[in-house]
Design goal:
By secondary structure, the chain is mostly helical. It contains 4 helices and 3 strands; from the N terminus they run βααββαα. It has a 3-stranded antiparallel beta sheet with strand order 1-3-2.
């Protein structure tokens, strides 16, 4: 017999670094990009361990792809006021 493991909302909040209240808020708005979708066990919400691990892995992979895309699209720009040397090179005064 295979026993499935589940996280309760307290354990999920620790794993995701969110409060229980914020998880409830995301679930009420059906924001499944912020928290993984739960299943109901009786009156309680539960999250399969494998499902949460897969959701986290997918989010991490998507974030890696976005970072790589951002680096290739935009040149590195300095923020703030240009240095005196940069102003002279541009002909500004």
């Amino acid at each position: 017999m295979v026993c499935k493991r589940f996280y309760n909302i307290g354990e999920l909040s620790t794993i995701l670094g969110k409060t229980v209240a914020s998880i409830h808020g995301h679930l009420s708005r059906k924001q499944y990009d912020a928290v993984p979708p739960p299943i109901k066990l009786g009156r309680r919400l539960a999250w399969p361990v494998e499902g949460v691990d897969a959701w986290i892995a997918e989010k991490a992979q998507r974030a890696d792809v976005e970072v790589k895309n951002q680096r290739s699209q935009f040149p590195v720009r300095r923020r703030g006021r240009p240095t005196k040397k940069e102003q002279r090179e541009r002909g500004e005064q």
